[in-house]
């Protein structure tokens, strides 16, 4: 086709739209559109024509005859695809060209023991299934996460396992629209219809708080971070519910989110415990808060468990080395990793059937140790 350059002045006050008519067919043939439109998916085509997603997928991938799909249905689908300007998605291309066999694992901080352990288990399962894992940290930063997702999409990876950051909903939604398999973990997004594998945050926080109360604590503190993410909100909710059911006093102390390499919470916790000398039980919402909180309590010479009893969410090998040993909620890391990969591999095996979200909530274990003993 010879090259034609078309320059059009689209000033609405001076442009004569009749001048555009001779070029409409040419522009349409080249695939240009004058109005922004939502990307058409295989699911949209199937719904519009009243056929199954599988039927549309077979036709797109040239398998209509092999699957004994009638010529009438085949032509109807092909005609509609041309009319709506459907372009093969990442998945359709993968079906024809082969998979990259690479899965992205996006964690909040890959150096954190929790995320590192999950990554190690996932890598082992992925390798056995013929996949490789790319690791990266978002630092719970939306802009960084968005940029990473964009980069890996261009690299044509097969799927994403993501710890979502604040405000990442649109990027996750776009991944699903483009038919990338996505599985969230550690937290989920209420506004996005997406697969996730998480733990019982609220139930475990309730159990841990009840344990402190049963051990005689009357003035409890819940130390957490400023966050409206689901896992932190659920832990706060579990603590609050247990307190309301008992005759105890409670304080909730929130710190700004920080990376493990940053210093700051220790000083704030030191000031908090100085001002609340009556506190006799502390529940730390994360283990990294517990590390700094234990240091602050030690500085103030608050004896554990005699002066104050301590529980932490998310067990750590350090808690077994500390004197006294720290009571903590243990997340099922191996099971969590297994279910993450099981869900991801299931999505990858069923690419042509559309995205059906899987939602799994796994139980934790409260390891009772010396820090809560009488």
From TrEMBL:
The keyword Transcription regulation applies. GO terms for molecular function: DNA-binding transcription factor activity; transcription cis-regulatory region binding. Residues 40-97 form the HTH lacI-type domain. CDD domains: HTH_LacI. Keywords: DNA-binding, Transcription, Transcription regulation. InterPro entries: HTH_LacI (IPR000843), LacI/GalR-like_sensor (IPR046335), Lambda_DNA-bd_dom_sf (IPR010982), Peripla_BP_I (IPR028082). This is LacI family transcriptional regulator. It comes from Mongoliibacter ruber. Coiled coil: none annotated.
